[in-house]
Amino acid sequence: MNLTTEYTGLKDSLLTDFQVWESQLAGGEKSTLHRVRREAIRQFDRLGFPTTKHEEWKYTNVGALTKQAFGFRSSTNLTVADVGALLVPHLEANVVVFVNGIYQPQLSRLVSPKADLRVEDFADAYQRDPAFVEQHFAQSAGYEHDAFTALSTAFAQHGAFIHVTDQKIIEHPVLLYFISDARSGNVASQPRNLFVVGRNSQVKIAEFFHTLGNNTSFTNAVTEITVEPNAYVEYYKVQEESEGAHHIGTTHITQLERSRSFSATITVQGGFVRNNLRVGLEGEHCEAHLFGLYLPDGKEHVDNHTVVDHAKPRSYSNELYKGILNGRATGVFNGKIFVRPDAQKTNAFQSNRNIILSDEASMNTKPQLEIFADDVKCSHGTTTGQLDEDALFYLRSRGIDADAAKSLLTVAFAGDVISQIHLPALREYIEQRVTRKLGQV
Amino acid sequence: MLKISNLQASIGEKQILRGINLEVRAGEVHAIMGPNGSGKSTLASVLAGRQEYEVTDGTVEYNGIDLLELSPEARAREGVFLAFQYPIEIPGVSTTNFLKTAVNEIRKHKGLEPLDAVQFLTLMKEKMKLVNIDQALLSRSLNEGFSGGEKKRNEVFQMAMLSPKLAILDETDSGLDIDALRIVAEGVNQLKRPDNATIVVTHYQRLLDYIIPDYVHVLYNGRIVKSGTKALAMELEEKGYDWIKNEVADAQAG
Predict the structure, then answer these.
(1) Band of pLDDT at residue A206, cut at 50, 70 and 90
(2) Which residues of B touch A412 (CB under 8 A)?
(3) Which domain holds residue A234?
(4) Is residue A415 in some structural domain?
(5) Residue A81 and residue A72: Cα distance in Å, rounded?
(6) Is A113 exposed, middle or buried (0-12, 13-18, 19+ CB in 10 A)?
(7) Domain count, chain B
(8) Most A CBs within 10 Å: which of B93, B96, B99, as the mutation test of the A interface?
(9) Do B101 and A415 touch (CB under 8 A)?
(10) Tens digits of residue pLDDT in B158-195
(11) Whole-angstrom Cα distance, residue B76 to residue A404?
(12) Structure confidence at residue A87 as a pLDDT band (50, 70, 90)
């Protein structure tokens, strides 16, 4: 008799996981939150993982990922010292650590007054104030068409909940560290984050993704951010994952009138990365700045899909994504700008610039503007090319060797994005990481 | 210092240098003149190590070493400097930062300790006076948005910082008004030492009013067809290049 059951793929295993987990919720399955989860798992079942026939996934093939097996909610014994090496130095901040998707209070440290800024695990927030969470959860991150968001919604339990009270300017940034501890096996996590920035308030939040160990990891992260009237959010996503890491991340920023947002998505490293960023400008006089930088080499794959949706008049958006590709790396940029019929006097700009350093690296870039209003200013531009030979010769003719010259030029190219980072300690940290990676060019 | 023998070079299928012979000794200033398209800039580029040009024949001996064997950066470290006709704009790299890297690479090659920030700034301040260049300009991106004159001054400033043994000035006078020309020329003159040499590549004689050459060579059709002293430059200024072309044609016919 054969007792081993054959592994039939990630989808089946997740559907089974959900049933087992649901049966252990002990009453929790009756909550409103869980009703949403149940709808989401059904939708995930219907959608299945996307294939490259799906327009949004044409150049990003999750086939290999969906055949692997992962341990979810794997426990870990990381110490403060283990984690310390991953933290941004010289930055006084609220530090929140998640390992394999589980909140680690003993590794976290909050410094801002609790009355101004509430930071806690999603599960704790839901227990404390279910109505507030329900009001914001799964509102912008739709799961109708997106299997990964459906999956995240179905398993929504842990992640960072951040609420900035109205009229507060939070001095110290919130740094969220998501660590996949893949030292002793394949691990997966689905952090589900919810940030609400109250009226007239300001906050800086950074998400960092790291992997420990050489096994495969899978992170399916979804962040929903609501920026209330006249508020400001500065949002950083910094990826320093391993070659064996699979990262599917989706961030939705919803902006109400006169709010501003700044986002920077910096992919230093990661084997297989897909970032979705959607900024919905749902009030008048909003402002959104989107920056991105990706530096894949080896066999890394980095895909950035962005959407800026102008729904109301008189808003401004500006987007700059830059890529440096080496080795056999592949990159994707897809940038959509929607200007809805109501959104007159919109100013929307988008630019994607890439440098390809090797013959075997490739980049697919597609800007997409859909404009339904007539009184708007929109532009987009994209370039993909090699390092400027004349510039290279100029530097070499002054005694700088070819490798150092290449590195100087690529770091300078990345500099346009790095210089946008407002937090000096973070800027320095990123600069150092980027220089280190490009120093190997 | 420099001995060029029968140097031939081409770009793609097109042969540009057809056998250059030239010898430059320490302490000398040589001017290379000639009509457009004669191969002046190609000669300068080949000496600096630009890879688009293929050297098909001949040798270049520089202080006893085979210059053509060296990479561009190795040539620079051995003391060869090319002031570009069209200095490249490099966004995101400041002149200061780039020069600090260059100066220290060259020092490392000579077995010297790298300059620290203070020493480097002191050296920079000293050399800035030579070409009357502004500190603010040097902290900006290299040549980006610089005027023609600022770019050329930056070239001579870099030359001052790197103190080469053999400086090649490629059409350094082009695009300069008379005041800028004088500043650039004075900078070059002050850098002149008994142990270094300068090759001035130019179409016009006017730069040679300020940088006085010991020898003047006329390059035409990829060969040096006439050599002389400053007087030759004056003659060219007066009569243009046509009489040289005719001489060459006659010689070939004869």
Answers:
(1) very high
(2) 90-93, 141
(3) 10-282
(4) yes
(5) 24
(6) exposed
(7) 1
(8) B93
(9) no
(10) 999 999 999 999 998 888 888 888 988 998 899 999 99
(11) 15
(12) very high
